[in-house]
Please model this.
Amino acid sequence: MKSKASNSKIPASTKLKMYAVKKTVKNLRLPLHTVDIYQLKENWTHLSAVDVSSMMNVQLKILIGQDNCQLIIPREVIEGPPNAPVLSRSLLGWSVHRNVGALKNRMNDNIMLHTWECKCDDKLHNLVKQSFKTESFRVLPPVKKLLSHEEERARKIMENTTKGVDDRWETGLLWRHDDPNLPLSYVMTKQRLYTIEKQMRKDEALIPCTKKKLRSSEISSNPKTWYIPHFPVYNVNKPRKIRLVFDAAARSGGSSLNNMLLPGPDML
Model:
């Protein structure tokens, strides 16, 4: 109780003075430092990754203790070969770490720390960055994806012809031209059918898949008629499942159904 009473009588100005003496030193009396960064970069190319300035007879004026470790702990590290200088970035900027003996320095310490502080003007940096944006001079990038003439035509056909039929959707064919001239394809398709029939004689499992009749509603009297050959395909992962493929790339008279249709835009 007695010591507490005596301490309470110390003037506030004296307390501040004692605190200052404890935390600061007027003259550190540290040796001068000289580091030629350009010479180091000639021997260690990884140091060129960061713009660090050289030091010529620099007197150190401040030592940062561990009580302020958040300022000096590395946030980013760039390493080279073994025993090479190491670059580290803290909140104060980039530093070069190197054995002093290899630098022929007069210091007796084993480790030298060279700190370079970035003094960038963030406001100026943001203004320059903003000037390179197209929005700054009223040139806005298109929000809607630009379509080619063919993609635009295909999109309009889809919008005008797509409709719901029962429990499915139906879309008109994406013709390249309004009145396509379709060559005769019946003979070509019939010839391909003979080939499929020969396969069915050898493999009766193909018959249920390929021998299916069209419904009357599927037969159209449209003057644009194109017969599409088909062929069965076995699924390697599902040996018992046979898939029927319609060959729209089959040619007749130098053309195919695929050549007369537009691929359309990528709706995904």
About this structure: The chain is about 30% helix and 20% strand. Confidence is low (pLDDT under 50) at residues 1-22, 102-111. Residues 184-212+224-252 form one domain.
